[in-house]
Amino acid sequence: MTAQSILTELEAMGSEPIKKLLMKHGVKEPFFGVKIEDMKTIQKRVKKDYQLSKDLYATGNSDAMYLAGLIADERKMTKADLSMWVKQAQSTNICDYTVPWIAAESNHGFELALEWIDTKDEAIASAGWSTLSNLVAVKPDSELDIPALQSLLGRVERTIHESENRVRSSMNSFVIAAGSFVVSLTEYAIEVGNRIGIVTVDKGDTACKVPSAVEYINKVKNRGSLGKKKKMARC
Q1: Which pLDDT score is estimated for 1?
Q2: Is residue 151 part of a domain?
Q3: Are 131 and 100 in contact (CB under 8 A)?
Q4: Which domain holds residue 48?
Q5: What is the pTM of this model?
């Protein structure tokens, strides 16, 4: 199975209505408009394949790049691989989901996230905050630097309203993730969320809204799910 043969499969799965919808959400050409559920039929056959995932990502086709994340072998992904992926991520679904998922599952997530959030590139900074959100969701608390995460919550409080559009959204998601997945940070995340207040983000021509961090964390708390980790970041 090669990247080119998979591209042929993806093209056959493409849908113009899905493509138009995805474009509203920041997915950029070239791509075919493939449903994730259809991509997963390929994922089930391939499972994980380090080289094939890199080959698919290198095509620059957004559908193939998303699939690359689904089949990536996080144990083999290097810092150089992930750094290249984040620089090549033009579509929002790749930059805010695919790359952060694999970075968080790898051994390099926290180090790279700290590097990315300090860049002046809006997309890469957003990917950094998204990586932090995924890290707290999948890593045991014993593997997390809790004081550093608390400090990052304080950074969000100080800077979120002056940050760029996509970064504001990812920062808000980090507050939610930290408060939901790390019980020792829940109360502080709620305090930060209360002080932040409403976070305004331009979501373009979509119905997407920015959730209230406090309301979201409290919903997780009320259903008894605080601290329950995910098996994996990618989905």
Answers
A1: 86
A2: yes
A3: yes
A4: 1-73
A5: 0.97
